[in-house]
Amino acid sequence: MTNETTPAPNFIRNQVREEIEGGQVTKIVTRFPPEPNGFLHIGHAKSICLNFGLAEQMGGDCHLRFDDTNPAKEEQAYIDAIKEDVSWLGFEWAGPVRFASDYFDQLYAWAQHLIREGKAYVDDLSPDEIREYRGTLTEPGTPSPYRERNAEENLDLLARMREGEFGESEKVLRAKIDMASPNINLRDPILYRIRHATHHQTGDKWKIYPSYDFTHGQSDALEGVTHSICTLEFEDHRPLYEWFLDNLPVPCKPRQIEFSRLNLNYTLTSKRKLKLLVDQGIVDGWDDPRMPTVSGMRRRGYTPASIRKFCDMIGVTRADGGLVDIAMLTHAIRSDLEDSAPRSMCVLKPLKVVLTNVPEGHEEVYDVPGHPARDDMPVRRVPFTRELYIDRDDFMEEPPKKFFRLAPGKEVRLRNSYVIRCDDVIKDESGEITALHCSVDFDTLGKNPEGRKVKGVIHWVSAVHGVPLEVRLYDNLFLEEQPDKDKDADFLEHLNPESLTVCQAIGEPSLAHATPESRFQFERVGYFCADRHASTPEHLVFNRTVGLKDTWAKIKQKG
Questions:
Q1: Catalytic residue list contains 415
Q2: How many other CB atoms are found less than 10 A from the CB of residue 512?
Q3: C-alpha dihedral (521, 523, 524, 529), degrees to nearest 10
Q4: 0.85 cut: is pTM over it?
Q5: N or C, which end of the chain is more exposed by having fewer CB within 10 Å?
Q6: Can you give the pLDDT at residue 402?
Q7: Is 212 annotated as belonging to a binding site?
Q8: Per the residue annotation, which of 174, 271, 299, 300 is the catalytic one?
Q9: Is pLDDT above 70 for 1?
Q10: DSSP strand E in 140-207: where?
């Protein structure tokens, strides 16, 4: 496993550097071409970091181009969200935002060119018949009976398709390549389909829309892209990508390079399945903090730097099929927040403590560092009063031997304050503990008590000055390491019923001024982020980003 001192593998960066040094390429131009039919997820983040990162490192350009060839599934909201995600990750695209639809007129002209060259034809076969005629991996396809239509008839039919004369499945335009090719993608692939749908960029101008395969390479060529970088599932499409470039009068010929996609355990990255989670209300939208979307991770408290660091850690290879441990992702954000997040105290499950030897109205205020290792962060002013809240998990009435927190007759230190002893446990009529009566050893502020060891330190909040918080504890959305591994099973069967727990908590006064997306370490608890949508000064909502325990760091040390 790669550690943080060893550069992660990136074979594409090495190849591009060699091409630039060898003079084959003067300036690298890459592109990130998402479909605007959903929100970007962590797999897209890897591609973003690769394409934009290469351009940054090599002094080139990276274009943002939307592959908007299927208006039935596309929305402006997705376009806006994708632009925001790319910018939030810290990248800038070269020139204006581009759309495949910008090139629809040129693509149509090139379709006509292929027809005139005898390399494309209009087919009347139904979708089912086209699949049947295509053959199998072991058997060649069968030519369509319409394959030998003459160019004049094909041009006329294509024009009538464009005008909307035919129904959606009545006709398609296909390339005429090789129905016996061992690569099924070359068995007369579809270039245009009829779709009676209004397009978000072109309105009702078009009744036919080009396929991804026909659009992608030519769009790259029109933009002067030098390297078309995509995931390994497009490796079998590369011969088709190159066939179009070889058979059309394109201004340049980009090179396609494939890399392995990101497979993260306990995570889904299928946009179709993520959309199902949203549509069925299983999650609270595309940016639910349990979602692996960039916007969901942002809302949960991940930083752009942590996501970029994670993508760098996993590297870029052609080795496919392996699962990346989600602990690597949590390690990246934890190590980032360890250095950057100010500290605060928050009690998730409040239990009242009355300090019986502290006078009514007594108050002390401690100046506590905002971060133990940084002098540039503001000092927190933490009030100490007669009544406090501690976490219920920090008290046990009958503790085991190695329980170093609070128990009847036992002592514990309040963080940044005194040592206290539990003298009495107050219960209601049902036997539920409602409060603890404790006493303070006033000779222990900033020093250890005389003649005895106090091993435990717990966090606390003043009952008088504490700030009410809604705290949302997020966990993995799925219990199964590969939720959709079994194609015959419903991935929803693996949902984690405890992926979200909500606490009505009490935080120290400094949290009252938390702005949306501000991040904190709640001492002894974890890292939290003020919800960018739900948190207001009147109703503070914090999302748990990650706990304090770093399992991947331990694995890395062993490895």
A1: no
A2: 14
A3: -30
A4: yes
A5: C
A6: 87
A7: yes
A8: 271
A9: no
A10: 172-175, 190-194
